[in-house]
Design a protein that fits this description.
Number of helices: 1
Order of helices and strands: EEEEEEEEEEEHEE
Structural class: mainly beta
Distance between the termini: 39 Å
Number of strands: 13
Oligomer: single chain
Helix content: under 10%
Shape: globular
Strand order of the largest sheet: 6-5-8-10
Amino acid sequence: MTGRLAILAVGVACLLLGACSDDSPVGGAGGEAPVGGSGGAGGEVVLPPLPPVEGLPVLEDLNPEPDVVEVELAARPGSAELLDGDATEVLTYNDTLPGPLLHARVGDRVIVHFTNELDEPTTIHWHGLRISDQMDGSPMIQNPVEPGESFTYDFVVPDAGTFWYHTHLHQIEQFERGLYGALVVHELEFPTFSSERLVVIDDIRL
């Protein structure tokens, strides 16, 4: 069995995506491209399900369209037991640290209904994605999402890879307290492997 390991390191957070390959493919038939339906050349395209990625909870896709990923994401205060018996106050996306996995495939339209439940403004930056700056969470372009307010991020993911999302406002405070998560965009033709696991590593001052 051979292994595959992809590493993305930015700042103090490090995302590792590892896969072990064998003769048992995950997702699709041997990593083949999407195939047409029973209607022949003009039939409906049937996309195989995305291969599972272990290690993080996955944001639920609320949209039945095969090329649209629509999710809900909320930033809110929380706590985590980083040391046994000792709760640490953190900031979370959807009550998890790190935030849940956003999972899509190349060419998908991604719609994120974001709600700010913090007591200060915030935004989300989609680190590494080639998308419109209007949707990229820079406070120089996007008005920060105020407490209690919502904003819908809407973009198409053009490239496969392991990326991440994080706050882009008051980063010394918000980022270091936990506002980050992982984003995996798969190829249209999936590579053949037996398992895929995502590990997010960060150093947190206790």
